[in-house]
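## Example record

The block below lists the input lines for one assembly entry, exactly as stored, with component labels intact.
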Amino acid sequence: MITLHHCVQSRSMRVLWLLNELEVDFRVVPHAFDKSLRSPEYLSLSPAGRVPALEIEGERMFESAAIMEFLCEKFPDIGYGRLPGDMDRMAWLVWLHFAETISQHCAPLTQQHIVIRDDADRSPLVMRLEEARLLKCYDAIEARLSTPVENRDYLLTSGFSACDIAVGQAVYIARHFARTDGHPELEKWYERITDRDGFRASLPDPESALIYTQDFYPPWDS
Amino acid sequence: MSQIRLHHVPASRSFRVLWLLAEMGTDCAIETYDIAGGSLRSPEYLALNPSGRVPALEVDGRVLMESGAIVEYLCETRPEHGLGRLPGDPERADYLQWMHFAETQATLVQELNLQWIFMPAEMRSKAVLQVQARRLAATAKVLEAALSERDWLLPSGFSAADVMMGFNVFALPYYIKMEKFPAITAYRARIEERPAYQAARARDGQQKFYAQDYYDPEAL
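Predicted structure tokens for the full assembly:
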């Protein structure tokens, strides 16, 4: 049995989406996005107190992208990975890692808008800088999807893969901080991949406590 | 095979690629950029890497971005150097985990760099800097625990995971006090003894980020 330790709207959503798509048996242990992640029990699973953590065949793993790589190698027949030797392997690795680059710019924005309690500690400069960096990330996705010959439906020429899941989930979070207007191919791609049952099943249940309670968090004026 | 070309900013994540190639004994040409000078935003560079970041690596007739992806790719396509742990290897899960955890930790360094180095002093928040330093220390504890038991991240010895993580280790002392982390300090010394690390450092160029040895949020 595979067990996923999950917080809604966090990076563990990527792994949940992938597990849904893989159609394997797994169970989800929900966690609140709070200090309980630093309990000794949880730290024995994920020593930095972060989600996701995955239990699989007696192994314990943390780091969402590492887990995604491992699962794609474990279930190669489903075809969401591109294993070494595959024509798209290089691109698969690039886009899987690029998802983390996007999430890295979402992290300080989440901190600035949501985690910080005292307005005096917020920085409009950080908000604007990180929003601009997210827009640069959108540019890179837009460029990838728009090719001179025929636009791509997915990040890889060979079709839907775990890259679309990883980058798609990163964009799901990024959209709270940077609007996708002006990136038409990205918007079409996002609509395409979020129209999948696997994505819908990774969304928060209606009764879950959300991290992002607003659809959009505009940068503050300085 | 045509020559490998690395697009590089000194002391940035592209150093990982420079170091890995040195460990492989593979030569590369280096194009150096300056973040502040805007050369990463030139049309020529954006044509190569539309996200305007380093590293980019021209290799095997293509252009790769993302240091972690480049490191994984080079280890898989050049397995004779034994620096990766390929699919099916008993250490594969751990290898992937450290590889990606290095990026989690590097992000925390990057957020501190943004606040301390690129932001005007009067705009800094002491509370935010304290929290960030604590979060960075939490990742250092994970590393300290692993390195208390062995010399390198994986029991079988030095690997590309050390190249990914080892790069971070040199940024940690700017933001956290290292007295509590003797195993990391010893790890750093082991890295510095590696001839390939020394060769890469000699080619790296002068870092322009840090002007002091330690950035103390309590002093604000």
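The mean pLDDT of chain A is 94. The domain at 89-202 of chain A is CATH 1.20.1050.10 (Glutathione S-transferase Yfyf (Class Pi); Chain A, domain 2).
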